């Protein structure tokens, strides 16, 4: 993980995040100052950012919003105070409403972003200055430590060519917290085609059935927020096992970019998961990133122990074959 340290200093009224990236300073600087790249990692995984304005000069502004799993928005802006090309910049960071007006009831912070060479990589230091202990405590209580750490730990896939970074790795999973799991797989095919494979029942039947010996039995799916969906599977041939299925509801949809659903096993009591799936295309390949939020770590560990990731890899390999035809 790139983030190496996070320090909260109530006496100095600061928080300091330190990270090391396996890329030269010029490349990391470009990631932090190019809106399209910054949007890929600045928000926490389940609250991705979208930068709609970016004027990198003293007095200039950057405006952004983050979109939650239910489509809710949290907006903010940077006012650039100082820019030292290639090495650092300082901003006044403010919470705003949906129209871009500063929310004066929330803290305003001065934030520095510094980039320095360390070997062939980059040492990144992010210091946030608060006006009071109460402001610091308020922002920390909102999840700033966890959110910033998760956000900047996404930067590896931005800094490197995706085909090079993921070649030979198959389906990868990371435990981000007691309840949050990230699954990633690079699919050789455009996002438009991968999106169709996820959302059209006749295509879902062709690939989404895990290991050989199973088949999709029933699919009900429409791309409408609030709609219910159902997918069930059954064994075929000599395969042993009982039919099973998953059902849920669509929470948020951004066609060809993001699909958020709830999920629970049919007939099982208790809470299910929230599955947040994003599609990012680069050079004709699509990076699938699935964030799974479990209600507790016991369920998380139980599901992972079933061989879920291996089953997903079998499906994804089959998906690539389907895309070629």
Radius of gyration: 21 Å
Q: Let me know the number of strands.
A: 16
Number of helices: 10
Mean pLDDT: 95
Largest sheet: 8 strands, antiparallel
Note the run of SSEs as H and E. EEHHEEEEEEHHHHEEHHEEEEEEHH
Q: Level of helix content?
A: 10-25%
Overall SS class = alpha+beta
Kindly estimate the percentage of residues that lie in beta strands according to DSSP: 35-45%
Strand order of the largest sheet: 1-2-8-7-6-5-4-3
Q: How far apart are the termini? A: 38 Å
Shape: elongated
Poorly predicted segments: none
Indicate the topology.
Blueprint: E1 3-9, E2 14-21, H1 25-33, H2 35-38, E3 49-54, E4 61-67, E5 73-84, E6 88-96, E7 109-118, E8 121-129, H3 133-141, H4 144-152, H5 156-159, H6 162-166, E9 172-175, E10 180-187, H7 191-199, H8 201-207, E11 214-220, E12 228-235, E13 244-254, E14 258-265, E15 273-282, E16 285-293, H9 297-304, H10 308-324
Antiparallel strand pairs: 1-2, 2-8, 3-4, 4-5, 5-6, 6-7, 7-8, 9-10, 10-16, 11-12, 12-13, 13-14, 14-15, 15-16
Helix pairs in contact: 7-8
